[in-house]
UniProtKB/TrEMBL annotation:
<dbReference type="GO" id="GO:0016052">
    <property type="term" value="P:carbohydrate catabolic process"/>
</dbReference>
<dbReference type="Pfam" id="PF01791">
    <property type="entry name" value="DeoC"/>
</dbReference>
<protein>
    <submittedName>
        <fullName>Deoxyribose-phosphate aldolase</fullName>
    </submittedName>
</protein>
<dbReference type="InterPro" id="IPR002915">
    <property type="entry name" value="DeoC/FbaB/LacD_aldolase"/>
</dbReference>
<keyword id="KW-0704">Schiff base</keyword>
<dbReference type="GO" id="GO:0005737">
    <property type="term" value="C:cytoplasm"/>
</dbReference>
<dbReference type="InterPro" id="IPR013785">
    <property type="entry name" value="Aldolase_TIM"/>
</dbReference>
<dbReference type="GO" id="GO:0004139">
    <property type="term" value="F:deoxyribose-phosphate aldolase activity"/>
</dbReference>
<dbReference type="InterPro" id="IPR011343">
    <property type="entry name" value="DeoC"/>
</dbReference>
<dbReference type="GO" id="GO:0009264">
    <property type="term" value="P:deoxyribonucleotide catabolic process"/>
</dbReference>
<keyword id="KW-0963">Cytoplasm</keyword>
Amino acid sequence: MNHLFPYIERTLLHPGVTINEQYEALDEVTQLGMAGLTVAPFWVKKFRRELGDTHPAILSTVIGYPFGYQRTEAKQTEIEWALKDGASEIEVVLNTSALFSPASVWLKIELAKLVSMVHAQEKFFTVILETSLLDQEQIRTVIKLATDAGADFLKNSTGVLPATFSLETALQFRQLVPQSVGVKIVADGATEEQLEELVKAGVERLALGHTF
């Protein structure tokens, strides 16, 4: 399992997450050399203090979580505070509701604005898609939007909706995303062998909520 640790992001976004649970995940990240820690915006400032400014682990947080249908201005404010608090990566949830409506043209404008904010601070930008709600054409459309906007990573799920991990679906997502863009897969429920398959296929980050 050790060889997988550099790909794993411990992700703590469920509504009942406790401070002790987060400290346990922080210990795993620092002691096992994991890629990073993803926390709710409320916790970013605290865990930046815990990690310090020079630790190599990514400290990521979510914007517009969990469904992405906040106004762009609200997301901009969330990003501003997250960056001030010390986030080194921003994950923005795509507004799926807009995608399903004539307002879908606004998604391109929104992503361009948000990517610009994050990249101006030289931080990473991830777009989260709820792929279980989208058909293949919609997934391709959103991937192109996010890629054209300059996203660094695409993530296949928020982890909020009930879902069973599917290696086939995860691998298909990696194939659809251009190699120039990183891929994160929510991999709770995957076996060690399946995690290895994802890494071999070029998945850069494995988002896991469970402990080791």
